[in-house]
Write a structure and sequence with these properties.
The protein is of the alpha+beta class and 493 residues long. 25% of the residues lie in helices and 36% in strands. The longest helix has 22 residues, at 131-152.
């Protein structure tokens, strides 16, 4: 690699005499990239190599005990990750790294006999803003990326031992490399300033802001700084570990026993020579502890029940309250719901009284403690009701049923503790009921009472003599959900 770096710099000097600066920079970058890719293939027969579709993933096709040494230059060339908004550390659901990891990398890994062995993470902040606030941002972004990988990889209990995490408060080194890759006209000035400050971020910031009366700083703020607000990662996967010991019958010992040796393939360290001055020291924080704060209980309401409208009756708002229990991990949750409505319009003999209780077992397809997106549910319900449309049309009864529910959940805020949900249910509902009327059915005078609509012998009357069975849609929902109880914060081990 030293030879590659020397060759690239030598060729750069020759090019500087004949080729324009922009083309000269591009050719030099191509040479450096070629050197990195050549070294990434390993020294003794492809020990390590980068995936073509996922350059941030280093793979060892055979079991290797020694992790690759990923230098800053290799990390900057290969790493990708999450972008963040200015002065924020929250995950952005629309970040392109999320579908790349979930929908492309994870399905590929499921087809391979490999396991995650090492995670290299670096979070950074752009130079604008107070220094101490940038310390907070860089560390917080590092933690968010580690949490995301832990969640998507199924909350591996030993992930903390695999993480090599650091944070760069104000990443001027990456800024210089980005300007070089873009062929920026001010690349040489900014690079020389960064080298002169010898890694002193405060010095670099002060002098950079003073260049051209602040005009260069404002251009960098618009053009490059949004790309510095990020946390990036490089992952190393290797074949699963072979048996610890292999019996080798090379010779028989004096005791008559066979010799047992331990075979552990030795890996070859992957190193990359630094492109910039190797004496520059960048402020790096120690590995950050990661804490998990998961919701335990959420309160939900169905707006369609709260603002219910009944044909032939009118507006009949009710109260719908639901409680959902979330486990720490997995796919399944338990939801309990109760609906209460009690409308009595004596003058028009209209009534709408409804009591409904429901239990539902849900399976969210995403899992991993996220509990958003699509879900499938299995529910059972019991109902008591009294409905009247006029003095001669009224019903009273009880019923029950069950079936399947389908829904989708969207987070409404950055924390994810407020969510919107759409749902629909279908199944069977069986009810026994009796019709009732106003006034005595025989006398016919207004006595102010309601009677069962029955004209036979009173001694033969049986309550709930009518039965109705329904198969089809049973419910619909537009829900708002809010987390009310959380688990105690726990450190991810």
């Amino acid at each position: 690699m030293l030879f590659c770096n020397f060759a690239a710099k030598t060729y750069y000097v020759k090019l500087s005499l004949t080729i324009a600066p922009r083309r000269r920079t591009l050719i030099c970058l191509l040479l450096s990239t070629l050197c990195v890719q050549t070294l990434a293939q390993g020294l003794d027969g492809a020990v390590y190599h980068q995936l073509k579709d996922f350059p941030f993933v280093i793979v060892s096709d055979d079991y290797v005990a020694t992790p690759p040494t990923v230098s800053d230059s290799l990390f900057d060339a290969a790493a990708v990750g999450l972008r963040f908004k200015v002065n924020r550390t929250e995950l952005q659901p629309t970040d392109p790294f999320i579908p790349l990891f979930r929908e492309r990398l994870l399905p590929w890994l499921k087809t391979q006999d490999m396991e995650l062995r090492q995670v290299y993470v670096k979070g950074a902040a752009s130079p604008e803003g107070p220094y101490q606030n940038n310390v907070r941002l860089s560390r917080g972004r590092t933690a968010r990326l580690i949490e995301f990988i832990s969640r998507e990889m199924g909350d591996k209990p030993d992930l903390a031992n695999m993480v090599s995490a650091s944070s760069v408060t104000e990443d001027y080194g990456l800024l210089v490399k980005m300007m070089g890759q873009a062929g920026d006209a001010d690349y040489d000035r900014v690079r020389r300033l960064w080298l002169d400050c010898q890694g002193d971020e405060a010095c670099c910031k002060r002098r950079l802001m003073a260049l051209d009366g602040g005009r260069l700083w404002r251009r960098l703020l618009r053009q490059y700084f949004p790309q510095l607000r990020q946390a990036r990662v490089v992952l190393w996967f290797a074949r699963r570990q072979p048996p610890v010991a292999v019996v080798v019958a090379e010779q028989k010992q004096a005791t008559g026993a066979f010799a047992r040796v331990e075979r552990r393939p030795e890996g070859v360290s992957l190193t990359v020579h630094e492109e910039l001055n190797p004496t520059i020291n960048i402020s790096v924080a120690p590995p950050l502890p990661v804490y998990r704060r998961r919701h335990l209980i959420a309160l939900r309401t169905n707006l369609l029940h709260d603002l219910f409208y009944m044909p032939n009756f009118g507006f009949a708002p009710g109260i719908n309250a639901q409680i959902e229990y979330y486990p720490l991990r997995g796919h399944y949750t338990l939801n309990a719901a109760f609906t209460y409505t009690n409308h009595r319009r004596w003058s028009s003999h209209k009534f709408f009284q409804w009591r409904d209780a429901q239990l539902e077992l849900r399976r969210y397809f995403r899992g991993g403690g996220v509990f958003t997106g699509p879900y499938l549910g299995l529910y059972a319900q019991g109902t008591v009701y009294g409905i009247g449309f006029s003095a001669t049309k009224g019903w009273q009864g009880e019923g029950g049923g069950g079936g399947l529910s389908l829904g989708y959940v969207w987070p409404l805020n950055r924390k994810g503790n407020l969510r919107l949900e759409l749902s629909a249910s279908a199944g069977a509902f069986v009810t026994r009921y009796d019709p009732y009327i106003y006034n005595h059915p025989y006398v016919g005078r207004d006595d102010g009472l309601y009677y069962y609509d029955y004209y036979g012998n009173a001694a033969n009357f049986q309550e709930r003599n009518y039965r109705f069975t329904w198969f089809g849609p049973t419910n619909a929902g537009l829900h708002l959900t809010y987390d009310i109880i959380y688990r105690k914060k726990q450190r991810v081990k």
